[in-house]
Amino acid sequence: MASKQIKTNDKHVKNLANIVGGSRSILYHKEDLLAYDSDGFTLHRHLPKAVVFPKDTQEVAKLVKYCSDNQLPFLARGAGTGLSGGAIPMNGEVIISMVRMKRLLSVNLENRRAVVEPGFVNLKLTNSISDKGYYYAPDPSSQYCCTIGGNVAENAGGAHCLKYGVTTNHILGLEVVLPNGEIIEIGENGIPDAPGYDLLGLITGSEGTLGIVTKITVRILKNPEAKQTVLAYFDNVTDGSQAVSDIISAGIVPAALEMMDKTAIEGVEAAAFPVGHPKDIEAVLLIEVDGISAGIAEQINQILEVCNNRNVREVKVAQDELERGRWWANRKTGFGAMGAISADYLVQDGVIPRSKLPQVLNRINQISEEAGLRIANIFHAGDGNLHPLVLFDARIPGESEKALAAGSACLQACADVGGTITGEHGVGIEKREEMRFVFTDEEINAQTDIREVFNPNNLLNAGKLFPMPGRCVEIKKELKEKEAAIS
Amino acid sequence: MSLKEMALKQDPSCTTNSLSNYLWSDAPDENKWADCVHCGMCLESCPTYELTGQEQHSPRGRVHLIKSVAEGKLEVNEQFMDPVFACLDCRACTTACPADVDVGGLIEEARGQIRQAMPLTGWKGSVSKLFLQGIFPHQNRLNSMGSLLKFYQKSGMQKVVRKTKLINVMPQHLVEMEAIMPEIKEPLRKKYKNEKVIKAKGETKNEVSLLTGCVMDVMFSDINESTVNVLTRNGNDVSIPQNQTCCGALHVHAGDRETGRKLAKQNMEAFKDSDKVITNAAGCGCALKEYPELFREDPEWHEKAEEFSAKVEDISKYIHDTGYEKPKAELNTRITYHDACHLAHGQGVRQEPRDILLDIPGVEMVHMPNADRCCGSAGIYNITNPEMAGDVLESKMQNVPDDVEMISMGNPGCMLQMAMGVEKYGRNQKIVHTIQLLDWAYQKEDQLKGGE
Q1: Can you give A123-147 as a three-state secondary structure string?
Q2: What is the pLDDT of residue A395?
Q3: Boundary-marking domain end, from A312, A341, A370
Q4: Domain containing B219: what range?
Q5: The pTM is what?
Q6: Smallest CA–CA distance from B1 into chain A, residue
Q7: How, per the record, is the cofactor bound (chain B) (predicted)?
Q8: Would you say B7 and A433 are in contact if contact means Cβ atoms under 8 Å apart?
């Protein structure tokens, strides 16, 4: 670990190392780079040219300028927990890792905002202010380790976004390094709804294709006065889905309304945080209501009644914070838990109108049968955000392809009922082609025109988010390179 | 074929053993990494990732590299060794992992391959050879080293060395270690050499055997003494099998799995008549429980190891589960508790020691944030990777509450490391073993009774 000399003849690596202050802040050996060849989406793997670790905005700006001046492709990466491949260096990018910029810069309780660096971990924000009665609402399941910078790039959602909205609803200001190295601030002073175009909205969710966020002003919320959590077991998925619709129709806006199906239950129960869900159950709902104390009990009673009307087998209210915590840990580690019952998984992220839940779930079942692959469903039922997890084993020839095709078919099913292809995970590499399910060529071109304005040379995170007309050529080139490397 | 399918074709999707760059038997186990889906939930649990922010120093990164060697994408070389050996072996990732991936097992298997491919050379090699093969497995040599240390302290030589700055010729991290060397007393195994069984005080309820440990018995024999006191006071006959040896944890951590297996066999033999094997050193306990892992490729010994490891239990859990007399004397002290990695993450023992401490009248427990974060001791990691170990220790010490008098824990390695932290950062806490506090409360109670 001692600081070492830079041992390479690559002048770019040497120059980049100089910008970030030497060998401790750059990786360039193949062995180290391999750890960066994918993010949470593992079906594509590419080695970066180098990984650099800037410590402040100035260093980021210099790195970006250097890459831009020298025509080196580059991209930003946080914790690398993204599920659509947004941080995969598919063009041999220089990865600018933001994880060392991880300070909480300020907390302003009076105006309910906090300023963080992009590498600051999502859950740490809530942990830092919870003793004062505040929290940060967007809570992706990976919140234990994902960074807020990554959340901004992907416009991350989470279980509680049903009531509180996704990341974009909580961003008040950004400092951004543009692809030419220029530093800009938008949403200054954190005043919401500033006049002019909504640049905050444009950058948030741009999947790292318009600029690199180096400072973030977020909204923080007062802890709700009361909170209750309910677990309900159903013997069939349709009853469970109907209960979801009924709860919303009854005028209740739960903070969270989550569903897992039988295969998902098998996974979480076989993994590290089991809570004893019955194995023979077809669907479990996890429902949370929060707000002022008055009225919570009434809402819970309404929910229990709805569940009973829909033939619930068992329904229970969390007795204490400990029980509530166990239920949530079980749900939030659900994706990783699939490792316990399957070698690999591919998670999809479709959104549908709530009323179409039973229909689409049936279709997903069909897709599963046709593909001969199991599909587990863990999803934010309340806002119709499905997460079909296609289980497969990449070691079996042909299974990866089948899984991808099945995942794509699930998205088609969502688009067919008037839904869309991503709710919170982003398009990345994974769903580029599926963008065509929901956008015409003209609509896609209009969006790439916007990218041109910010990122004219397309050096920053190229090849993500939109289907690429030139892709075929690219693939052939890569194939040739691979073949050359093998032989 | 669609574009997407073509894109996939280029990624090698299968693992072929023939490609593997692991050349020796006992190679990292494919089934272990097959559970890892690269979700990243382990990242924040890992002290080396926290400090470096680099994913090759994270659990999922290490797993990916270990897998890549098996897939023939990487060689076993210096660059691969660095992340694999920088792991503290703290197992925090095992707790965090949703899929229960045995990262610790993979790391140790990979270290075994590295050590065979690239035997240690230089001073690190000599030091590690001296300790791991020359001293730890040999109780008499350990004892003589203990006697030497005792002589060093008692003779006044320690004072001379410190005063004359002779100490400055040692590397800094060894100087820091010298500063906190506990006072050496007589090892327990020597003391009870001729006693087959130390009888329970009062009626015998259970019979147990004690692993005295090597560092524990030489550096902290008073903790072993306390352990025997607590056990016998609570109705346990205690035997100390004389042919027991070092648990092998340090060897396995260092990649010397062959010596690890040798020691494991000797211990299984030594304790073959015991129904319960009690340890008071979390690192040893965890190692004993993981003996089956060493014999994956040897069905006969694997079965024996399974049987043996089922008998192993940490003293705090054993006492907690079988019941113990609540002490009546008051200790009147403010303490905090540090979770030794190999107790909390390795053996899942978290609440039991805390319950015991809270049962002692007058003990006030102050919460330590991130109590289950590694202190950086990690076997002999603090000797081999002093820089990283120092950084980990610094972040640990920042979490130790200011206003406590003692830090309690269940592992001798942590005790030495934390004592070094107290010394280095000008703190004034006393470092104690959980079972010592219980024993002191008993002793105080007896004194008070005697005085009546």
Answers
A1: HHHHHHHHHHCEECCCCCCCCCCCE
A2: 86
A3: A341
A4: 188-320
A5: 0.88
A6: A401
A7: Binds 2 [4Fe-4S] clusters.
A8: no
